Amino acid sequence: MKLRSLASALAATVALPLGVAQATDLEVTHWWTSGGEAAAVAELAKAFDATGNKWVDGAIAGSGGTARPIMISRITGGDPMGATQFNHGRQAQELVEAGLMRDLTDVATRENWKEIVKPASLLDSCTIEGKIYCAPVNIHSWQWLWLSNAAFKQAGVPVPKNWDEFVAAAPALEKAGIVPLALGGQPWQSSGAFDVLIVAVAGKDVFEKVFAQKDEEVAAGPEIAKVFKAADDARRMAKGSNVQDWNQATNLVITGKAGGQIMGDWAQGEFQVAGQKAGVDYTCLPGLGLNEVLATGGDAFYFPLLEDEEKSKAQEALASTLLKPETQVAFNLKKGSLPVRGDVDLATANDCMRKGLDILAKGSVIQWTDQLLSPDSQKQKEDLFSEFFANPSMTPEDAQKRFADIIAAAD
Fold first, then answer.
1. 44-48, 345-349, 371-375 — which is least confidently predicted?
2. Torsion angle defined by CA atoms of residues 344, 363, 378 and 206, in that order, rounded to the nearest 10 degrees
3. Which of 145, 212, 215, 220 is the most exposed place for a label (fewest CB within 10 A)?
4. Same domain assignment for residues 268 and 171
């Protein structure tokens, strides 16, 4: 479907409100509050409003780590929203097992989600005991290094082609008064950066042995020791960041105050809002330029069980709308993520999105840690790397021992 045809397709949905008998408000909670994220979520709201219902935005400031406990507390406390964002994986598993989330199998079967959602692991992450409990909306990958072309020009060195060249360029950046690596202070950022380094430095097989197979010996071994050496380099390079939120760190790259940032492809939304062009103002290196492997995690919407019949109908309308081709295109172009449908036309995708699409087409993908580890194991890992990046007296060797212990006990 060509992009100019999508407007017509979207307009047609106004006249076909998916069987909704009466317009109703539906509160949708999420943690998309940065400039790029807000622009993207507005596309979801517009598409849902076109069904005859109304999207009531329940944005929660902060990261997923801040928002999820609030969302879970509302659902378990008897004050459920109409729909809520979680990441693909196990974050809502206990809510499903407690009978608090709606089964979407009928909607998914009617609309053939098993055929259109690619890769299949996305829908697998929504499936518990054979029933589908969430609607995937995008594929987000963490494995990117974003570089400021202006910062490297100011420092008088070429834009790096990989992580090793980036580390080698750090002294020149520092001499020019530029922070080499932008890194926010939230624990999920340092933990995520380390996970990216595992794939880039040690490779896909080692990553899967550690996180999928929970292999303690590999976690304690020489390949992961190399990763901790790279993390030690990253720790030194990020020393002057002095920001908290991920989008503040991205802004350091956008403004040329930092050379680069390890961050997921959602950072693209911030570059887009700032009017910067991929390949001209900034450079993106999937797999940090070392191993072009992308995780196929991302975001999905879950629907708490509601007694209100009209709101239940609106839930079905929203679940359906999220997977429509026109919604997938409009949302993901602004979010910087990839669509979960392989049959949509992304003719206007930028240079970085095309790189991601090419890697996805080659099948060079992995499941991400949200899909492979329980929330408790993830929290332990976040605590470790928050301390490691904040405390230069913690040696890579000591941190690796703690990491191996976490993997040994992981579920």
1. 345-349
2. -170
3. 212
4. yes
- Summarised one tens digit per residue, pLDDT across range 230-263 is 999 999 999 989 999 999 999 999 999 999 999 9
Residue whose tokens read 């406990």: 69
Predicted TM-score (pTM) of this structure: 0.80
Distance CA 375, CA 191 (A): 13
pLDDT score recorded for residue 22 = 61
* Single-letter code of the amino acid located at 280: V
Question: How would DSSP label each residue in 246-258?
Answer: HHHHHHHHHTTSE
Whether 234 and 193 have beta carbons less than 8 Å apart is answered as yes
Q: Are residues 117 and 171 in the same domain?
A: no
Angle between helices 187-197 and 64-76 (to 10 degrees): 120
Place of tokens 């890194």: 183
User: Residue 58: helix, strand or coil by DSSP?
Assistant: strand
Q: Two tokens at 410?
A: 């992981």
Which range of residues forms the domain containing residue 161? 144-295+365-409
d(CA 388, CA 228): 10
Which secondary-structure segment (H or E) carries 44?
Answer: helix 35-49
DSSP for residue 111: T
At 20, the amino acid letter reads V
Q: Residue 113: helix, strand or coil by DSSP? A: helix
DSSP assigned state of 118: S
